[in-house]
Write a structure and sequence with these properties.
Elements: H1 7-77
Length: about 80
């Protein structure tokens, strides 16, 4: 058989090359997105720790105020 330059073969080579480039772009995009998501997750974790601290602070203040009000009512009644 004679070898010949097939137009379809060149086209397939170009398509394969384009697919490889697109795959690399997608991989780079995936790495970028994962990096951004990791940063967001770290920020959320830091924020959660601070929020938890503030929640305990507010609950503690509320309980302290409630105990103080009950103490004033008991002192006022007696």
């Amino acid at each position: 058989m004679d070898q010949h330059d097939c137009i379809q073969e060149k086209r397939l080579d170009r398509i394969e090359s384009d697919l490889e480039k697109e795959a690399k772009k997608h991989e780079d995009l995936r790495k970028t997105i994962n990096g951004k998501l990791d940063q967001i997750y770290k920020a959320i974790q830091t924020g959660d720790d601070k929020n938890l601290k503030y929640i305990f602070l507010v609950v503690g203040m509320f309980l302290g105020a409630l105990i103080s009000v009950i103490g004033f009512f008991i002192a006022y009644i007696k």
